[in-house]
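Hey L., structure's done. Input below.
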Amino acid sequence: MVKLFLDLGNTRIKVALEDDSGYQYLGPISMADFSNPNLLKDFLDSAKPTAVFMSSVLSADDLDSVKSIIQSTYELFPVMLIAQKSCCGLKTGYDDFNQLGDDRWMALQGARSLTHQPTLVIDAGTAMTIDGILDGQHLGGFIVPGLSSLRASLGEDTANISVVEEPSHSSGTFSVPALLATSTHAAILGGTLYMTASFINSIIADLNNQVGTQFKVFITGGNAPKLNVLIDTPTEYVPDLVLLGMKKIVESIKK
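Output:
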């Protein structure tokens, strides 16, 4: 069996495959490339999935589009993986588990598959979420605007400030920005980055003090590499954390 795992985010789709040779994270693909059957097949290196599993934060219309692409390209009906009250030795901390985002649940399961230590999971995407795990219990978490959302709000809600775009980093490496900026563009980029990192540092410190233990910190999402340089606590960057959680849940279903 060849399993295709899809993490459908707001701006891109993360992809992994699993077959008899093992699990392989293929990376992110844009929705435009995913919608092109030839580009999709090239991205999968001509692998032919026999089962497709998806977790999504997309709108109903966009999700239907992805399902149609899978059906027309591979003649398969994808299986949606959603949040549960409990699974795989982990219980949700939400009063109503149906309100917990599916991607958050999958990221928590991904972290749980890597360690049983007290864990903090940071997903730094369009929105940023922070969730804690202690002794197999999800403690709850926070949802705040991600970097792009913060920057866009300044451009939309403030006179004489336009929406700023961050330059791409082809190397994938990031350095600590200058503490004080000397242009409006840099001030927005640096200020929102420092503000978000400070929030993360405060949560980590407060949670460690409240519980009386050191939490292992996993970080994922598109903004994770640039935030990592400002986080005081050692973190483990796992770009496919949601996909690993999906894999774990599928394995539990087989049992």
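DSSP finds eight helices and twelve strands in the chain. The first strand starts at residue 3 and ends at 8.

-- N.
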